[in-house]
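@channel sequence for tomorrow's demo:
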Amino acid sequence: MAERAAGDDVDQHRAAPSGRYLYNEDRRPAAKTRSRWLPGGKQTRPGRDGALPYLMIAPLVVFIAALAIYPTVLTIIEAFFHSDPLTPPNRFVGFGNFAGIFSNSQVRTSFENTGWYALFGVVLTVSLGTGIGLLLQRPFRGRGIILAIVILPWALPGVVEGVIWSWIYNPTVGVLNSVLKSLHLIGQYQLFIGTHRVETILLISLVQVWQITPLAALIVLAGLQSIPDELYEGASVDGASWHRVVRSITLPLIRPALAIATVQALVISLNIFDQVYVLNASATTGSSLMSTTYFITFQDLNFGQGYALSLLATVVTVLAAVLIVKVLYRKVEY
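structure tokens (generated this afternoon):
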């Protein structure tokens, strides 16, 4: 009888709640109560945990506000004021700054040149990036080395690239002149930058294309890696040619990647400055919108028109990027 009573006491002890868990015969914890993060769960700790996510992203919010939001708001405000440190104080002029920049022939020329930069930059960058991505799509020996070489131009600053290519385009000791003359394509060394407008813009665009093509190639390559192999296997069974596979399967399925690469190339081409400043200086032959903004702001000390021109460039860039996304981007479902 004593042994049976002791056994009953043990059973009752096992059945009794202990803390937050109920123990079974295996001494293993039963299911917990619903977590506060599960659907339908109740929040049991309403303390400081709710503010923790906001505290963690607060430094990033402050950083973005200091480097992006505040300058943008300041630019919008100052674009409607006459701001010249030599003739203070600032005064409200409305759309006078915008009227001034549109009446400036140098600004109009830079708008046209920037359009050429965008055209050459987008077409060449996306075409070369797509081609490189297709070549690197399948694994092969030495693929990692080639990929590292392809990425190298993207790692170089724009000023460094401008200096390197200024040596290539040099009219007296340049590599380009030397190669063309050795191939008997030219009779004597020539000046390439600054003579003809479209030629100057194209040569400067090649420098930037050399820099940003690796980024486009990586974006396209990421899109290519997401395509299921079953689609290519099915096309191979059907006897489709490589060109047909690229046209009917690859390109339609990487449209999101192509849209992103195109927007990146467009934004960088519309804001080209380093290469233009190093290779073309202040000449209007190849001036861009950003270089003209720089000279108006810091050379002419006309900060009001500089703010207005930078605001106009921002609006044009945003509208063009949105248009490209609307035209090219399509959601892909496999």
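heads up for whoever presents: The CA atoms of residues 122 and 322 lie 15 Å apart.
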